[in-house]
Write a structure and sequence with these properties.
It is built from 5 helices and 7 strands, in the order ααββαββαβαββ. With about 150 residues, it is of the alpha/beta class. A hairpin with a 2-residue loop joins strand 3 and strand 4.
Length: about 150
């Protein structure tokens, strides 16, 4: 199943699929580039799409799909301030996303997948930060201020 058809199969994501990186807010688009733009399959803004259903939950930001060999790969992307005080907030968002994918969003829980955090401003974390290592154990990769989709 492709990412596009998976998104369209979920009523809560109706109208949420966008071509390329068009689902990303304009303030976040400069933080993401694709090495092979023609392989981009599409994107969704989970935060906005699910705001009505999960108004008080720590929603994740985006899902971005690329074509890799015979399957789509999904990058689950969070754009968030990067400092020690925000690590737990991002961890909560990641836990929320994983629960949502397992329960209601399983159609879009395609593999391979990756969970990515991109700083929304100045980065006050180092790659060797113990808190980042904690997030890495949860499967999250911190990419600093920019993510280049392979």
């Amino acid at each position: 199943m492709t990412f596009k058809s998976a998104v369209r199969s979920l009523p809560v994501l109706e109208g949420c699929f966008h071509v390329g990186l068009q689902a990303l807010r304009s303030s976040d688009r400069s933080r993401v580039t694709a090495m092979r733009p023609r392989r981009l399959r599409g994107s969704i803004d989970i935060d906005n799409c699910l705001r009505t259903y999960y108004a008080n939950d720590p929603r994740w930001d985006y899902g971005i799909a690329t074509r890799q060999s015979s399957t789509d790969r999904v990058y689950w992307l969070e754009v968030h301030p990067a400092n020690d005080g925000e690590v737990e907030a991002v961890a909560k968002k990641l836990r929320w996303l994983k629960k949502w994918l397992a329960r209601e969003g399983n159609a879009v829980d395609l593999t391979p997948r990756a969970f990515i955090w991109v700083a929304s401003g100045r980065t006050a974390l180092t790659q060797n930060s113990p808190k980042l290592k904690q997030l890495a154990r949860l499967g999250l990769v911190f990419k600093g201020g920019h993510f280049k989709i392979p």
